[in-house]
Amino acid sequence: MILVLKQGTNREAIDTLCDWLTTKYNVKTNPIIGSEATIIGLVGDTSHISAQEIEMHEEIERIVKVQEPYKRANRKFHPDDTIIKVGREAIGGKKIVVAAGPCAVESEEQIAELAQIVREAGATMLRGGAFKPRTSPYSFQGLRAEGLLYLRRAHSLTGLPVVTEITNPSQLDLFLDYADVIQVGARNMQNFELLKELGRIDRPVLLKRGFSNSINELLMSAEYIMSEGNSKVILCERGIRTFETSTRNTLDISAIPVLKAKTHLPVIVDPSHAAGQASLVEPLAMAAIAAGADGLEIEVHQNPKLALSDGPQSLTPDAFTALMKKLSVIAQACGREI
């Protein structure tokens, strides 16, 4: 349930109303003072709330019932776009962010060199996997804690915030030391115990859509994080599994405007995992920006043929530099910038 307040309602009146709602109905209140309206979101069992009693308060303009099961992630709950600060970067604003780097950290020298390359090309964040959940148990599983250390050293060298994937709640202390944005991969989108743990920290979480999950299921996973208190959630469309075999996954471009309508959270796109082919990354990345994405996550490797993980979908440094120039043109055409 959402209470829309009359324009000009002061903070003291808002606080008094919130205290009354909490005492009277045992619900959590979330007041949001937006650019166009001030609302109070009610979270909890609202079935017993009397609309007539609430409407007696002179501050109330109208009551809106939220039918969707996700509340905190709902745009009705938070009409203005959420902007998440990561270092000096802001995700969700006018500027489009680009996180670039290898699928997996292979050595300290490799990630340090790539960090400098992608920064010079215009990337705003450094992505790289230290813990790698792989389909095959015989594939490279990552350098683990050592990889996180190398990512942090690359951050010290370039200033790029680090985005890297967590696979288990037991790793959380390590990630709090080394990661600026903690990524939840597609395979863990519905690992609810992990999501709840991430909801109890003050660190941005990049939540990837599962390859067989609906948009509503993605938003419910975001709700798990937000319900524990962490509102710094970034959604990521990375392709879904369909009957089509020409690509690794099918990038759901329509998910971008759908999500932007349903939620206030930032939405970024991973064209690398969607395509599975380096030649398709450029057109999919440009399409994502044109469709309204707030950012991209792109895999880059010095020598994709020798990559220990996902080489076929990784761009060379030259290809990434060329792509960034083209993305800048697309962004400007959409009234944004990179």
Keywords:
single chain, 338 residues, alpha/beta, Alpha-Beta Plaits, TIM Barrel, 2 domains, eight-stranded parallel β-barrel, four-stranded antiparallel sheet, 14 strands
Layout of strands and helices, then pairs:
Blueprint lengths: L1 E4 L5 H15 L2 E6 L4 E6 L7 H5 L4 E5 L19 E3 L2 E3 L5 E5 L6 H14 L3 E3 L17 H14 L3 E5 L5 H7 L2 E4 L7 H7 L6 E4 L6 H13 L5 E5 L17 H8 L4 E3 L1 H5 L2 H13 L4 E5 L17 H17 L5
Parallel strand pairs: 7-8, 7-14, 8-9, 9-10, 10-11, 11-12, 12-13, 13-14
Antiparallel strand pairs: 1-3, 1-4, 2-3, 5-6
Give your account of this protein's structure.
This protein has 11 helices and 14 strands. It is an alpha/beta fold and 338 residues long. It folds into 2 domains: 2-64, Alpha-Beta Plaits, CATH 3.30.70.1140; 84-333, TIM Barrel (Alpha-Beta Barrel). Strands 7-8-9-10-11-12-13-14 form an 8-stranded parallel β-barrel, surrounded by 6 helices. A 4-stranded antiparallel β-sheet has the order 2-3-1-4. Strands 5-6 form a two-stranded antiparallel sheet. Helix 3 packs parallel to helix 11. The protein is elongated, with a radius of gyration of 21 Å. The two termini are 37 Å apart.
